[in-house]
Design goal:
The complex is a heterodimer of chains A (about 300) and B (about 300). Chain A is of the alpha/beta class and about 300 residues long. In chain A, about 45% of the residues lie in helices and about 20% in strands. Chain A starts with a strand and ends with a helix. The mean pLDDT of chain A is about 95. In chain B, helix 1 links the parallel strand 1 and strand 2. The chains are: A alpha/beta (about 300), B alpha/beta (about 300). The interface of A and B includes residues 216, 219 and 299 of A.
Chain lengths: ~300, ~300
């Protein structure tokens, strides 16, 4: 695999583009003309856990780029539909890999073309300093699994390419058990933290008293587990145990949704809780508590508009 | 026949009762409160109400419960979390008297009954705020309902005597055999709206104009109604109507719920006595209240976040 296109060059897209350019011919599909021009003129600098500058070709339309074998759709969740519609009719032989939070991004892409699809979820993080400069912060892995028309071997090949570039990746025969565990964990911990202002720590696992927060956390996770069960997914880790373990470790992690709320930025609740609630509705599983959390977060966003 | 009444907790609502009752010739009013500046100002200059009514009441205020003489009535108006400490300190004054609550939430009567024999269930709608020591802005006039507390009742004639004094003093009150209906209507209203404002930062009107949130308020109302129903309580009107009425621009569209004000000031909220009270009763009665339990846990989480 030698030609990769990164569609959507935010933090995650820039990290993939910068690293993969060391082992493949990388192109980038950007939204803004000046972003494409800057990348073409100056390349893309990666700092933080690495320090190098990659050359790549960027454009705002697929017509201007050579046909890739792999397309990494790396936009925020809300932009997947726009990017997929832009790609419609192009590159029929390519494999498209989605990398958004939550679930269902691959299904959105599937509606716009017959490409082969891979599904992935990434835990790496970075900071964007400029259109042409991204900092690599957390070197955690990207998990990849087959989706439409692909096999575990396809996921493995992409994981190997990513590993060769210097990023971390892991292939799964079926991504859904890991993806759903993470989704249920995230939909719960992020929204509870964002509404209470608590970092992810002890109160999330406390069950001593009736009013302790652990009861709500567990009830939210139980709703999520019921949705996973209805979807036929056997979870790879129990989200409640992930929660207990994380609070015991004492990292006092500030979940991203809490950071968004503190900075009064729009949150990713639509991709996280939203995707869980949409699946629940599709499968006819009641999720009143997640609906409540969703409504409260959306209302909180409204309060600072 | 004259009577002596002590207001226990002379904040905004307590002050409305204290000042109005003090205008009556046949009522001697005392006030017990821990805010020294407020107490000193009342003793020096009287207790002044402005706004919805202009009143100056002359009464005795103290922060020393030992000074209180035997009283015919107590009216407890502290924040709900201070009930136990306040009545424990003052109960000697009510050894032969009756004690009414006009506090928010449910569960206050039960706390009073652990300390005194004759308890009056009460619900009041007037509201105001202390603007300076000894001065209270009277924002909203409204009715008060009193009734004997079932488990530890005051004689009905005494309930009537208290209601009559309040009415004559300018705080319209009625005595009813079953005062639970008005109380649960107010609790359900408060529990369905206050925490939504507190958790989202939105005013009452903005909570109501967002359909998904308004629906959540209805879910909280429905759970509250089911818990009231299971006790045979007949609400005196529908909390839903109160919610929509309050959302009107000329009523309380721009009003920040007291719980939102508490959260913004990082003060402990009354959630334990609102959503927590409904959830507790629900659990005892076997009525599920998942929405109240979740909201309760979230607001307790907000309070806990201030300790981090």
């Amino acid at each position: 695999m030698t030609r990769v296109c990164v569609a959507g060059a935010g933090v995650i897209g820039s990290l993939f583009a910068g690293f993969l350019a060391r082992v493949a011919e990388v192109t980038a599909l950007t939204r803004r003309e000046e972003h494409a021009r800057a990348l073409n003129d100056h390349g893309l600098r990666v700092s933080g856990r690495a320090d190098f500058t990659s050359r790549l070709t960027a454009a705002t339309t697929p017509d201007a780029l050579p046909e890739p074998e792999l397309v990494i759709v790396a936009s925020k969740g809300g932009d997947v539909d726009t990017i997929a519609s832009q790609l419609a009719g192009h590159w029929p032989a390519a494999t498209l890999m989605t990398v958004q939070n939550g679930i269902g991004a691959d299904e959105i892409v599937a509606r716009h073309g017959a490409w082969r699809l891979l599904s992935s979820v990434t835990f790496m993080s970075g900071s964007r300093h400029a259109d042409t400069h991204v900092e690599y912060v957390l070197d955690t892995a990207t998990w990849i699994g087959p989706s439409r028309g692909t096999t575990p071997a396809d996921a493995q090949a992409v994981a190997e390419l990513i590993e060769a570039s210097g990023l971390k990746a892991k292939a799964f025969d079926d991504l859904r058990p890991a993806q759903w565990s993470k989704l249920i964990f995230n939909a719960t911990v992020n929204t509870v933290a964002a509404l209470t202002g608590l970092r992810h720590e002890m109160p999330f696992a406390r069950l001593d008293d009736d009013r302790d927060l652990g009861h709500l956390v567990r009830a939210l996770m139980d709703e999520g587990k019921a949705v996973a069960a209805a979807a036929g997914v056997a979870l790879d880790e129990d989200p409640w145990e992930m929660n207990v373990l994380a609070t015991q470790r004492g990292f006092r992690h500030a979940p991203s949704m809490l950071e968004d709320v503190l900075a009064r930025r729009p949150t990713e609740v639509d991709m996280i809780t939203g995707s869980l609630v949409r699946e629940a509705h599709r499968l006819g599983v009641p999720v009143p508590l997640h609906e409540t959390m969703y409504r409260l977060i959306k209302a909180k966003e409204l309060s600072w508009e | 026949m004259g009577m002596r009444i002590c207001i226990v907790g002379c904040g905004a609502v307590g002050s409305l009762f204290a000042a109005n009752l003090a205008t009556l010739d046949d009522v001697e009013v005392w006030a017990y409160d821990l805010a020294r500046e407020h107490v000193d100002a009342i003793d020096r200059d009287g207790l002044r109400l402005t706004g919805a009514g202009e009143v100056v009441g002359r009464l005795r205020a103290t922060s020393d419960a030992g000074e209180l003489p035997p009283c015919d009535f107590g009216i407890v108006a502290t924040k709900a979390m201070h009930t136990d400490a306040a009545i424990a300190a003052t109960k000697h004054a009510f050894a032969d008297g009756c004690v009414a609550t006009v506090q928010n939430g449910i569960g206050n009567e039960e706390v009073l009954a652990r300390h005194v024999e004759r308890v009056i269930r009460g619900t009041t709608f007037p509201a105001g705020k202390i603007t300076a020591p000894g001065v209270v802005q009277w924002d909203v006039k409204g009715d008060t309902t009193f009734g004997p507390f079932e488990d530890s009742p005051a004689p009905f004639a005494e309930v009537q005597r208290l209601a009559d004094a309040c009415t004559r003093g300018g705080m319209p009150a009625s005595a009813v055999e079953d005062a639970r209906g008005p109380q649960w209507r107010k609790v359900i209203f408060n529990a369905a709206t206050n925490p939504l404002g507190a958790l989202t930062g939105l005013t009452h009107g903005r909570v109501c104009e967002r359909p998904p949130l308004r629906k959540l308020a209805s879910q909280l109302v429905d759970e509250g109604k089911a818990v009231a129903d299971a006790q045979g309580i007949v609400l005196d009107s529908d909390p839903e109507e109160l919610i929509d009425y309050a959302a009107r621009p000329e009523v309380a569209y721009e009003h920040k719920a007291s719980m939102l004000q508490d959260v913004e000031a990082r003060r402990q909220t009354e959630v334990d006595y609102l959503n927590g009270g409904i959830a507790d009763f629900g659990r005892k009665l076997g009525i599920p209240t998942p929405a109240h339990e979740s909201i309760w846990a979230l607001v307790k989480g907000v309070e806990a976040s201030w300790m981090q």
